[in-house]
Write a structure and sequence with these properties.
Elements lengths: L18 E7 L9 E7 L17 E11 L6 E10 L23
Antiparallel strand pairs: 1-2, 1-3, 3-4
Amino acid sequence: EAIGAAHTPYFPEATVAEAWWLQFSIPPSKGTPPNRCFRIIDPGHDVTVEVKFKVKALGKCRCQFVLTSEAYSGLSVQQGVSFEAKQAPQGSYDEDENDSEDSVEHGD
């Protein structure tokens, strides 16, 4: 089910697309920026975004996600995530793959 436009009585247009910013923070390492931002536009209630990144070393890793609404001031959610980084199976990662996309737009 799709959601409608944001209620924005002070904007000149009646419809302002609801968009979200996903900020991903990981401890910095050589060649990897510590923060990445993605703008997400999707009119659905449930949205899935794939975030690809490299970790600096094998072992325990902690990162932070902050999801902020572009339409509603003060509406944001922050979530810390911990995981165990393991060696990838040989041939499972394409090093020529472009994983530096910083904008994810869904919908029309």
